[in-house]
Design a protein that fits this description.
The complex is a heterodimer of chains A (236) and B (292). Chain A is 38% helix and 28% strand. Chain A contains ten helices and ten strands. With 236 residues, chain A is of the alpha/beta class. With 292 residues, chain B is mainly α. Chain B has a single domain, classed as Orthogonal Bundle (ABC transporter involved in vitamin B12 uptake, BtuC), CATH 1.10.3470. In chain B, β2 and β3 form a beta hairpin. The radius of gyration of chain B is 19 Å and the shape is globular. The relative contact order of chain B is 0.21. The chains are: A alpha/beta (236), B mainly alpha (292). The interface between A and B is medium-sized, with 27 and 18 residues. Bound molecules: adenosine-5'-triphosphate and magnesium ion.
């Protein structure tokens, strides 16, 4: 079943066009990764899918609904969440309040305690720090909070924008382990990464983005195996 | 000693009104990073609304007050929807100028409807004077401070605990991240304008009972002072607006009592300049630089 289908997407910042006729899709249950260098347009695509930017052309379909003209809050409430680049946690709110905000999309009567429990199960560190202001957390803890916050909304599709950015190798391993776990728990994942090697190691399929265009797509394993691709796109 | 105490209490009286109005400036700034220069004129509209309901409609005081407050809340929401929302992604200066335009629009509309001549505000609350030892506190002063403090406490509770209050804090910290949580920013922004304008209306009624003359430009001075109070306390920070309001009121009252009435405004502005020189982000301001 198709979870997300983006076709012919073009996005511009004023006169500057950042995304040119991009098409890709994510099947239910998959981990799909978009990889590309700085400025390739990865975050722009995620922002557009979330409704924070309006496309110039193209369509975005989530499950069976067209979402490219909806406001961001409507899209989140449909079950499509994003962990944005740079985490963007609410620094002046406590860890618990951040998690509560994550469940905002589910409405005022949502049962939060089971959500907290499962987040604390995945991220035990957050439990110890639940009363602390989020701004005082370490970078790794903030990334965990950003992911836990998104999970509180019980999304069916989770988009992660560079979750490994700025983290130590051990933490990167940890974050990717949790991404696999979330996927095993039934969440479909669209992963944006510069760390192509890590991303390809967890993904089913991949798209390579270059200056706003998809230049290569295929199974993740085929990317890793292809010497030319590794040299050209992954810098390995 | 007694006169000092009396001056301070008088200062807290006018200060609590400044604080209520200052909250409107600071909440709106916190959410949309906009100084709403029309906020002072909401005070004036609130006073005229209460005046009309008290005299022409001959409503009891509580009913007139309640309706005036609701009217101002609706006005605040409407002004945002009609005048500010279309400019949300325009350069900051365009919205700023628009708020000044709205300010003139409100003043001129009221001038047209009611004439520029000031009118007396009928004071309809009779509260007995409070006597503690040989210190006399006017009942109005007591009620004003009580109402203001109760409202501020309620607002603080709302922002800390309520779902919508938390959404407001989230939006004020990171608009896009709040949207990604499923917060409808239009609702949140409307709510903020409604609360700010409602508090200004309460301020208007309390102010008019102390200075019972209502005119189309009456919002300018309390509006300006409340704005200064908000900046003094740290714009965007709610406890800062409250603190700033009380400081302004007490400083003004003490200057009037001990130095000179004419100088009171100068002293108040002087305090602002000194505080901003020492701490540009205001008394409770965070000293991190604003991310743009
Ligand atoms: N707000 C903006 N205004 C104008 N141009 C922008 C804006 N945001 C991004 N761009 C431009 O759009 C292009 C794509 O940016 P985007 O942030 O999507 O890249 P990215 O692939 O996420 O990069 P990175 O890996 O560095 O996060 C870049 O050329 C960038 O300069
Ligand atoms: Mg990016």
């Amino acid at each position: 079943m198709m979870m997300l289908s983006v076709s012919g997407l073009s996005v511009a910042y004023g006169a500057i066009q950042a995304i040119h006729d991009v098409s890709f899709h994510v099947e239910k249950g998959e981990i799909v990764t978009l990889i590309g260098a700085n400025g390739a347009g990865k975050s722009t695509i995620l922002k557009t899918v979330s409704g924070l930017l309006r496309p110039k052309a193209g369509t975005i379909q989530f499950e069976d609904k067209q979402v490219h003209s909806l406001d961001p809050h409507r899209i989140v409430r449909m079950g499509l969440a994003q962990v944005p680049e740079g985490r963007r946690i609410f620094q002046r709110m406590t860890v618990l309040e951040n998690l509560e905000m994550g469940a905002f999309a589910r409405g005022g009567r949502a049962d939060l305690s089971s959500g907290y429990e499962s987040v604390f199960h995945s991220f035990p560190r957050l439990k110890e720090r639940r009363g602390q202001l989020a701004g005082t957390l370490s970078g790794g803890e903030q990334q965990m909070l950003a992911m836990g916050r998104a999970l509180m909304g019980r999304p069916r599709l989770l988009m992660l924008d560079e979750p490994s950015m700025g983290l130590s190798p051990i933490l990167v391993e940890e974050i990717f382990r949790i991404i696999r776990q979330m996927n095993a728990d039934g969440i479909t994942i669209l992963l944006v990464e510069q760390n192509a090697q890590m991303a390809l190691s967890v993904a089913d399929r991949a798209y390579v983005l270059e200056t706003g265009r998809v230049v290569k797509e295929g199974g993740a394993a085929s990317f890793m195996g292809d010497e030319a691709v590794r040299k050209a796109y992954l810098g390995l | 000693m007694n006169t000092l105490l009396t001056q301070i209490i008088n200062g807290l009286h006018v200060g609590s009104v400044y604080a209520l109005i200052a909250l409107g400036y600071t909440m709106v700034y916190g959410i949309v990073k906009l100084i709403n220069f029309a906020h002072g004129d909401v005070i004036m509209v609130g006073a005229y609304a209460a005046l009309t309901l008290l005299t022409s409609a001959a409503l009891p005081f509580w009913a007139a007050a309640l309706l005036a407050i609701l009217f101002c809340a609706a006005l605040g929401v409407t002004v945002e929807r009609v005048a500010y929302k279309p400019l949300r992604s325009a350069p900051r200066i365009s919205s700023l100028i628009t708020t000044i335009g709205v300010s003139f629009f409100l003043q001129n509309s009221v001038q047209m409807l009611f004439s520029p001549t000031p009118r007396p505000f009928p004071i309809r609350i009779n509260v007995p004077t409070l006597v503690v030892g040989n210190l006399k506190v006017s009942g109005l002063t007591f009620v004003t401070i009580l109402v203001a403090v109760a409202l501020m406490a309620a607002l603080e509770m709302f922002v800390r605990r309520a779902r919508m209050g938390k959404a407001m804090r989230a939006v004020s910290e990171d608009l896009q991240a709040a949207q990604l949580m499923g917060v409808n920013i239009n609702t949140t922004i409307s709510m903020t304008f409604a609360i700010g304008a409602a508090l200004a209306a309460v301020g208007a009624i309390l102010y008019s009972t102390a200075y019972p003359s209502v005119s189309p430009t009456m919002g300018a001075m309390p509006g300006l002072k409340a704005f200064i109070a908000a900046v003094l306390g740290g714009i965007g920070i709610m406890p800062g607006a409250m603190l700033g309001g009380f400081i302004m009121g007490v400083a003004e009252s003490l200057t009037k009592g001990y130095i000179s009435t004419q100088l009171s405004d100068a002293v108040v502005f002087g305090i602002l300049i000194v505080v901003l020189l020492v701490k540009p982000s205001g008394i409770l301001g965070r000293h991190v630089s604003e991310k743009v």
